[in-house]
Amino acid sequence: MAAEYDAIVIGAGSVGNPTAYFLAREGLRVLVLDELSASGQGQNKAAIGGVRATHSDPAKITLCRESLEIFAGWKDATGTDIGWKKGGYCFPAFDEKVEATVRGLLPTQQRYRLNIDWLPATEIQRVVPGINPTGLRGGTFSPDDGQVSPLLAAESFTREAVRRGATYRYRETVRALLREGDAVVGVETEVGRYRAPTVVNAAGVHASRISALAGLDLPILPDSHEGGISAPMRPFLDPLIVDIRPGPEGRTLNFYFGQNSEGQIIFCYTPKPVIPGESRDSTYEFMPIVAASMVEVIPRLKNLTIRRVWRGLYPMTPDGSPILGRAPGVPGLVLAVGMCGQGFMLGPGVGKSLAALIVHGKPSIPSEIFDLLSPSRDLYASKKEALK
Amino acid sequence: MVGAFENGYVGVVKQGRFVLVRPDRLLVAAGAREKALAFPGADLPGVYGGGAFQTLVNRDLIKPAKRLFIVGGGNVGLIVAYQALQAGIDVVGLVEMLPECGGYKVHRDKILRLGVPVLTSHTVLRAEGKDHVERVVIARVDEKFRPIAGTELEVEVDTLLIAVGLASVNELYEEGRRLGLKVYAAGDAHTIAEASAAMFSGRIVARRILADLGRPVEIPAEWSPMLEMLSSHPGPVQGSYPVPREAKVYPVIRCAQEIPCNPCTEVCVEDSISIPEGNILGRPLFAGACVGCLKCVAICPGLAISMVDRRVDPTGARAKVTLPWEMPEGLIAPGQTVPTTGAEGEPVGVGKVVRILSGKALNRRRLVVLDVPAAEADRVAGIRVRDPEPFAPPTSPVLVDDSEVTVCRCERVTKEMIAEYIATTGVRDFNAVKAGLRCGMGPCGGRTCLELTARIFRELGIDPRTVAPPTRRPFTQEVPMTAFLAEEGGGGGV
Question: Are B228 and B218 in contact (CB under 8 A)?
């Protein structure tokens, strides 16, 4: 006989963990399934931990504002330090094009109550000590954004969910979705069958495979990004820096770095062209490219010592925005997929809204904003996120 | 080499530059690293790895200790004890957790004869001291290796060596294999064994690489069983072959255990020493003529051969015994009376130093000629240089507090934190322990703590093989940012 739950979450990752936590907090009996051996061991741990509401898409702005609130209050709520550091995000502009892009987004961002403004070069130099003054025109700064440790956050969300009765089962791959008519009423793994009226697909880069089990064709394809981390140094850098200039030889779309709560510089870039596929083997060109880029922005970073690099996967949607909400035509199946590499910063906001949707019938953020990410939208409309 | 990357590339830091190489073949011969033990005080200054201490003493000619205690009766522990005595460092004792030392009997016997107590079925409980090791507490263990309360003994020393085994440095080999590189491993990076086995495995792997590259080389069929023999663990103690009855001058060979060693059979001018089994593992047998040339005494790495000469005293009351002698010069001198011991350090009597021989013909080893009572001659195998001191129970009660036991030194994670974390979260994944506690996240990349964490899983009743292994990523050691920068002369040239 199948074990009975109120909700099943597939994927103990950036999105699944907070979703499980918020569902358990509502009193639901929650089961979380993951094919790996522990929580947060998929792409969650590849995230660098930047959390910003600084986007161009209203839904992402709003969801990330929720995330920021949850992360910022986490220590007070649970007693657990997850490395939250409110240092803001800075998009410096070293040329006219970048200035035009980031300033052009300010009206939308401010309309959705984002605390962000354009600062002149002298102010940016104060916010980012040691920034290269050559050609610096200024930049945007959003002081309420910040950083969290993805490792500690995954662990803490899991622990708090379990404390509220959630069950985690690892090393179980979902083989089938249990159906009653059109509805999904549970899942089957190689180990067992579990029934629940609600099944949340939070399977990250495996989201397409899971949805296909319900006959849904979700065009979510992974591409890969690399990240790295240095040995710790004395704290000097508050904000996360995002440079959207093309990097050396045009090989990057943008790159970003910050100093985490341990004092380590953590960094990443968006390669150009994108590297599709599921390979997570480190490339030999990542460090030379990112090193040149970082030292260009803050010359003193040449004194760093690099400890570790890794490569993670972004579950990409055609329009670059997440797919959130009840699956069309499949009652019981809820989608929290296609985070496009922002699952970690979106996760808590998404989890909170989905829990509200599942339990109370409507998300915690305004429905008209939440529905911008609806699975029923035209995924191929040309709306592209401006700030990846 | 600091990492392996996709498409067959490896990264090398060469003169401060990050350089890429795309090798046809990659050989990992990175040797071994020492295993650690977690106990209170293990991170006190004065606690060394046995191999690290060996490097300091033998290579760097530094004498970092006066009174030494050693944990571990494998070959490293036994040999470093002997070498410390050679360097003029007093070795107060050695403990081995198992009922028998794992190292060669000949190496154990060497230090027993010199007067070093070897306590089997014992372990170290803690090291104590203010800013440096001042004393260690040891205890007997039961058959499950748990310390037995009430058996604690306190030993005043300034230095403690941990010699509890070696682990292959094979991360790049494993990474290379995972990435599909044509990668080989040789020596300790492949299998922990003696140096002779390591060198031989290098010969084999070199030929294998050449053969794989299409060169016309052969690997003789007998090489592989030979390597196996060289890498084998010592056999059970079987006893030595008996000493000849009638002879007047003859070697006494105290080689009682199968080990891969045979120089004595090769130096005998009369060809009187052989291994009946016909392979290097067997025990040597002396049969035939002996001219007393002393070559066998001088060559035996185990110091297991003495030469008895009964021709010197017409009355038959006295005999000459010649022993290898590698202790510091001046410790004994001609004319001096010295306490003699048997093979395993048991007291025999006294002998008078007649002379000390040395020279090129004697393998550059000094030999000491003793005048001893004829009846004792066959038994005399060594000279005691130190009197074992009695160890007393500690004056204050011994508390073993896991909160004091550092497992990850880089990130200062204690045994208690890890055990509690595993117990409360139920994790079965080394990466999750790392994520939650930063254990293994430091500059060393988990070289010490992973092994210790595996041991904690085992102590909690969890087979570490059921725990998901740690994910390996570049870099195997930290790399300066400048290595990657073109204007600094770095930047990934191929």
Answer: no
CA torsion angle for A352, A355, A357, A363 (degrees, to 10)?
-10
Query: Quick one: A383 exposed, middle or buried, by C-beta within 10 A (0-12, 13-18, 19+)?
Result: middle
Task: Provide CATH code, domain A3-62+150-220+319-373.
Answer: 3.50.50.60
CATH tag for B34-164 (out of 3.40.640.10, 3.40.190.10, 2.60.40.790, 3.50.50.60): 3.50.50.60
A79, two tokens: 């007693």
User: By 3-state DSSP, what share of chain A in percent is helix, strand and coil, each rounded to 5?
Assistant: 30, 30, 40
Task: Give the minimum alpha-carbon distance from B421 to chain A in angstroms, rounded to a whole number.
Answer: 11
- B388 has a chain A CB within 8 A of its CB: no
Instruction: Tell me whether A288 touches chain B (CB under 8 Å).
Output: yes
pLDDT of res. B378: 96
* CATH code reported for the domain at A86-145+221-316: 3.30.9.10
Q: In chain B, which residues have their Cβ closer than 8 Å to the Cβ of A154?
A: 435
Task: Report CB contact under 8 Å: A309, B474.
Answer: yes
For residue A30, what is the enclosing H or E element?
strand A30-33
Binary contact (A282, B6; C-beta < 8 A): yes
Query: B247, exposed or middle or buried, with CB in 10 Å at 0-12, 13-18, 19+?
Result: middle
Average pLDDT, 10 consecutive residues per value, chain B (494 residues): 93 94 96 94 95 95 96 97 97 97 96 98 96 97 93 97 95 94 96 92 96 94 91 89 88 94 94 92 94 95 96 93 94 96 97 93 91 96 94 84 88 95 95 95 91 94 96 94 79 46
Q: pLDDT tens-digit profile of A62-88?
A: 999 999 999 999 999 999 999 999 999
Q: Quick: pLDDT tens for A158-170.
A: 999 999 999 999 9
